Amino acid sequence: MKALRKKIIDSAEKRKKQTWHQRKKWKPVVQEESIPRAHNAVLPLLAHIGKPEPTPFVPDPFQIEALERILREDVVVSAPTGSGKTWIAVQAAKEYLVRGCGIWYATPLKALSNAKYEEFGEIFGRERIGILTGDRKENPDAPIIVGTTEILRNQLYDAMESGRDLAVDIVILDEAHYLGDIDRGVVWEEVLIYLPERVRVLLLSATISNAEDVSRWLMHVRKTTCSVVQATERPVPLHVMFLTPQNLLTPFFRGSRLFPKVQSYLKTEKGHRRFGASPFPDMNRIMSVLREFQLLPAIIFLKSRADCDKALESLNPSPLDPEEGGFSEAVMSESKNFPELSAQRQFDQLLTRRAGSHHAGQLPGWRLLIERMMVAGHLEVIFSTSTVAAGVNFPARTVVLLQSDRFNGRTFVDMTSTDLHQMTGRAGRRGMDNAGFTLIIPGRYMDLPLVRELLLSEPEPLQSRIGVNFSMVLNLLLSHDPAGVQELLGYSFSAFHVNPKRAEKVKRFLQTNFRKHLSLLQELNYIDEKGVPTHDGRWAARLRLDHPLLIAQLIREREFSDLNSKQLAALMAPFVMDKDKEIVISRELWQRTNPLWKRFRSMLQKLKPLAELLINRGFDVPNIMFWPAAAVFLWAEEVEWGELIENVDADEGDLAMLILRTADHLRQLLSLEKEEPKLAATAAKALSSLMRAPLV
């Protein structure tokens, strides 16, 4: 901490020695025509800037209605970001606690679960809160459990197998629009189908355009009453503005049409060439506008991780002193938990620019530091990819949009209305702003007519993402016969349609897919001819992984039996990567992992017959790469984090995710202690070598 304090003091002392003239030089030099100006039509919007007068908290009618209803029936709450959905959850938890009931609060992300655990600990007391995320298992018998939806789904699998009731009386599903998430939605749908009817369900979501459909589906599945409680108005009004290439701030809309200045820009080729010629926006120019019109703090959404980092690097230092407002002390206090953060390459930029870059390529601890500094009001701006809009809560006064497309994990696609509403939903802080602002800046990646259309549109309806996978089939057959599993699949949201013909078609598709999975599992002797899991099928069901059959086959082949803990961790790593991205590793690491390479090749040979069978039957097989094994092996040897990133050419956040997901896979092996005691013990040792700073 001494080094950290010295770094902060040095930064402050350097500023004190600056003359007034030198400080002025920090501001960008602008030509006269680019001095920020406001169109007369935008002045009434800017007049709303300011902090509202403090008033006693009074719950909104929709909050009161939702609380009254959840005490007797299921409820779907659909309301804009920042409207107070958490208040409903807290009050409902208090009511159920008084009744001696158990509460499960599920979120889609570990980071959100961690944040809610801290928040609820302050409200209810640590002794009444537990957390289950895979990474963390604390106070699991507490009356209130916070965790990820996957853990809740796994508990439901276990409860159905054992025939015992789940010790919970109300489940609160936060960020329930994840029901429509292409990767995670299936888990949410499973939870809602498997939950006992007696358990109340409270779904909290940003605006859902088909909330009534979701409610009717829940009543159909759960045979209980379900109400929809909606709030349509934002708690903080939103104003949308446009910045011309000449630094003129104008409204974006006139009624439902584009403001004349925006239309003029679209018609002027000179404007297109002039602003679109530069591949990267001038962030100091944008910041001068935001400062001039008191639109800070802001979130500026950018296309990529690299763009976020480049924007931060290009930014001039903030005119605010690091000591002002207790900023440097706050950074030092937060950094106590992660001393390694002071060595981060962006640490000095955080202090001098009052700004942060926030994306998945960074260490979780660093992202958390940025989030906390923003929430506490210490930062002027955050540069982020669009993914932050869906999962992290740090509202700002202004959201800045420079493109109308986003990266979906594979390629760039046009934003949807839901994407855009999630981003603009971060603008305007309840109790801190009279209004929120979205600033749209034209450029080569901005389709202005598309943005207009999306802003005027409702978010897209939630779609079912249900699908059949081997882990699901193995686990459901522990408690149901094949006919029962097919009946469960018939309850899916995708099969729930007003049109009976369409519903029947979807049911047949899911049931055919189930039989396809069942047939292969029977051929591999995980399921017998009656549809009952064999001995191998029962332990394989506990491998709740993306590719359970591949891992199970290696266990059957005794491929893991003679591995040490480092080798086991390394050879589990290739199965957790969901992106076919080849990463370069250093020559030294290649030489260091040469014996591991031989085991890796042996593993691939053992898997070859099964992989060919899966492909022939129409199932996907992952591309199993060596670099994840080499990276995790090096980390398991307990090298310093700096040495790891020197030898593996991957973003820190990707390496952290690789290691944390490998740890999740190793935890699945712990469940095989009875059948494979040696393997479980090796997995436990491997796990302890992976879970260390700066990851925990």
From TrEMBL:
GO biological process: one example: nuclear-transcribed mRNA catabolic process, 3'-5' exonucleolytic nonsense-mediated decay
Family matches, as PROSITE patterns: HELICASE_ATP_BIND_1, HELICASE_CTER
UniProt keyword annotation of Transmembrane helix present: no
Domain Helicase C-terminal: 282-478
One Gene Ontology molecular-function label: hydrolase activity
One Pfam family recorded for the sequence: DSHCT
Protein name: Superfamily II RNA helicase
Organism encoding this protein: Desulfomonile tiedjei (strain ATCC 49306 / DSM 6799 / DCB-1)
Lineage of producing organism: Bacteria, Pseudomonadati, Thermodesulfobacteriota, Desulfomonilia, Desulfomonilales
